[in-house]
């Protein structure tokens, strides 16, 4: 009986796993997966802000003249700016100047001061970014402005991997980049892919819901994977770009959409917006659905047919 092929790698600072059912000669699925991993590595080289990259060179030119960028980077920034506008700036790729403060906070375990956050916020504003499609240039008009694509970059890498697998003839696959997922099932597949959504309150890793999907993207953002605690307060990694600070009223958000990049961007937006604004934002999306688990355990379903119980209890106990 034919068995799926699964390969794991670490890319974009995260664990990646690709699983695919063979669709051609023996060994073709593994070869396709390895090629897809090469594509994720290429995307990382394009948009990382941890080392030299085309994105970092754009950031270094802030306050100066426009910078000629590749069509791919131009399109990705343009796509992200659309989500920035839709979210009213809660999701904002120019948050990165504030993001550097929080990156240091995760290293030291001490949150940045209010004064430091307020100073960095002066350079935040997606509406300031100047895009010229005819010339293929992007300009960051203020010195110190930075673009960070971490909130959609991993999802984009997952989508590019899925494109490679499809182009190489695979029709049943599951690409998981640390929770940013893109999947596909051929019409003849025996059942949909099953995606478990973690209960954010359960220390044993039990699920809050099980989604069954045949295609598209899934992403979950939460306060339980990357965080630190200081003086009894929990600080996670998702920033409300309007304030430069983290919220504490949502435990997790799961979004399904046509692509992993879109699901990632929307999930991040909802985490930044908070339960009420976030639910309204998600319900306005014709291209997405999902559910929000608040810090109190309340579940808010948004355009989704498959959802967990009405309330998730700590450690799964009623």
Q: What labels would you give this structure?
A:
318 residues; alpha+beta; T-fold; 8-stranded antiparallel β-sheet; 33% helix; 26% strand
The helix-strand sequence is EEHHEHHHEEHEEEEEEEEEEHHEE
CA radius of gyration is 20 Å
- Taking pLDDT < 50 over at least 5 consecutive residues as the criterion, the unreliable ranges are 314-318
The CATH superfamily of the domain at 191-316 appears as: ApbE-like domains
The computed structural class is alpha+beta
Using the coordinates above, name the CATH class of the domain at 191-316.
Alpha Beta
Strand order of the largest sheet: 1-2-6-7-10-15-16-17
Mean pLDDT: 91
Name the helicity range: 25-40%
Beta-strand proportion = 25-35%
Walk me through the structure.
With 318 residues, the chain is of the alpha+beta class. Among the domains are: 54-148, T-fold (Orthogonal Bundle), CATH 1.10.3980; 191-316, Roll (T-fold), CATH 3.10.520.10. The protein contains eight helices and 17 strands. The strands form five sheets. It has an eight-stranded antiparallel beta sheet, with helices on one face. The chain is globular and about 60 Å long. The chain starts with a strand and ends in a 16-residue tail after the last strand. Mean pLDDT is 91; it is low at 314-318.
